[in-house]
Design brief:
With 177 residues, this protein is of the alpha/beta class. It has one domain: Endonuclease Chain A (Endonuclease, Chain A). The chain has seven helices and nine strands, in the order βαβαβααβααββββαβ. It has a nine-stranded mixed β-sheet with strand order 1-2-8-7-6-3-4-5-9, with helices on both faces. A hairpin with a 7-residue loop joins strand 7 and strand 8. Helix 2 runs parallel beside helix 4. The longest helix is centred in the last third of the chain and has 16 residues. The protein is globular, with a radius of gyration of 15 Å. It starts with a strand and ends in a 9-residue tail after the last strand.
């Protein structure tokens, strides 16, 4: 089943890990609504890989609150973000930068190794079941499914391979004095 129009009402019946419905996303607003909806239902993990932290998607109050809630849900929450570049987010005071600094035990941000600089996909995996996948990271066209464990597993393998070859982003370190 595919929804043509993404709205809060169209997401009401979709549950992370529930029956699978393919959503076709075409705008930053679609991404933000669906990502926040999935994230608000996640209880264990969130993996994101993207070129940079798109403000229209990730620097919104609804997404920040859901991310904070997941981080505080359990001491075992696993939130990992891989970026090509964080300079714009750091320079402009992105909400995830602030959260990652405050909750560094729960949210880790790393920079992709130079070997992956040509990687032009973006995706989000919530609780190893829900996915948002962009075949070309620069465009908002994407698919989303609240329950696609097979694809989530494939994307997670890709993510973890890149994660293991990445390095911590020094911009996200919080100095405690």
């Amino acid at each position: 089943m595919s929804y043509n129009t993404i709205s809060q009402a169209s997401l009401t019946d979709l549950q992370l890990g529930g029956q699978s419905h393919r959503l076709e996303l075409s705008s930053a607003a679609d991404h933000n609504l669906v990502a926040t909806h999935m994230l608000s239902q996640a209880t264990r993990s969130l993996y994101i890989i993207c070129p940079e932290l798109d403000r229209k998607i990730f620097d919104q109050d609804n997404f920040s609150k859901a991310l904070y809630d997941l981080a505080r849900y359990s001491r075992n929450s696993d939130i990992r973000i891989l970026l090509h570049d964080s300079s714009d987010a750091v320079r402009n005071g992105h909400s995830i930068v602030n959260l990652a600094k405050r909750l560094s035990s729960y949210i880790e941000v790393r920079l992709l190794d130079n070997d992956y600089k040509s990687f032009d996909e973006a995706f989000m995996i919530a609780d190893k079941r829900g996915i948002i996948y962009q075949g070309r990271a620069k465009y908002y066209d994407a698919i989303a499914e609240h329950h696609h464990p097979r694809l989530a597993q494939e994307l997670e393998k890709t993510f973890l391979d890149m994660w293991n070859h990445s390095h911590p982003d020094p911009n996200f370190r919080q100095l405690h004095i």
